[in-house]
Amino acid sequence: MVKAKPTDAPLVIARPDLMKAVERWRRHLAQERRLAANTVEAYARDVDQFLRFLTGHLGEPPKLADLADMRVSDIRAFLAARRNGGAGSRTVARGIAGVRSLIRFLERDGTATGAPFRAVRPPAQKRSLPRPLPPEAASKVVSLDQALDEEPWIAARNTAIFALLYGGGLRISEALALKRSEAPRNANEALRITGKGGKQRIVPVLPAISAAVAHYLRLCPYTPGPDSPLFLGARGGPLNPRMVQRAMEKLRSALNLPDTATPHALRHSFATHILASGGDLRGIQELLGHASLSTTQVYTEVDTDRLMAAFTAAHPRA
């Protein structure tokens, strides 16, 4: 009788003392800094990649003391390994963010030093600008007449979500986090949105948005409790964000829109179109829930590009 081969043991990427420190750091991000779950997971993946690299680089799983002995050459070797693995400049720069966060956390209790990490600059990267939709295209996306779903209530649901993204500047995660009791049912209501890092903001609700949500609720075949999600999937459970993305992909094809026409592009369109109509940058910052005005200022560059394109096309001496 042939014995089955034992399965390979899981790869150990760090010693127990370091793994405990990483777990403390994750709890700190989630509970004290109140970062979004997706951000915590992204940072954790960054650290996981770094620890895997150190396991090969050092010849054994690293321990907590190894982080205190890090040299600039070790960090540069990690960045080089990421680039050699096919990661672009943006990915490499973002990937070091989680590692630096961990090191700053450990530096406070003296178990690591951040000096080598501060001495290494991440690769330069070209800042990409948001890609908003033209106003006419955005209006078609949020029109129920353009919806391509066979089920009327699903068509109404997707239209209501797109209306919130474009008319209120919400992220998909923020729209799908709304409870049924928070549904804007009347014109000129306001929504209290909890965004990244637990930051709350007030978003005015346009009459068109409340009308779209009310129409969806009238057609929705499910009647869950007030604490249930506002937007439901086809079987009555929480709606997967991927379903919203697929609905946008179908519209993109039908309306001949570019690949940059994503649900998040509706949020970019919200900000860009308000700015183009004379909106105040500080006000847009509050509506979007940006912690820093510098994040919002990127939309001024988008609007400048739009104005220069119009100038070049129209001016006789351009």
TrEMBL record:
Residues annotated as the enzyme's active site: R171, K196, H264, R267, H290, Y299
Cellular component terms per the entry's GO annotation: cytoplasm
Gene3D superfamilies xref list: 1.10.150.130, Intergrase catalytic core (1.10.443.10)
One of the GO biological process terms: DNA transposition
Subcellular location: Cytoplasm
Domain Tyr recombinase as annotated: residue spans: 128-312
Family: Belongs to the 'phage' integrase family. XerC subfamily.
Cited HAMAP family: Recomb_XerC_XerD
Protein's UniProt name: Tyrosine recombinase XerC
Gene designation: xerC
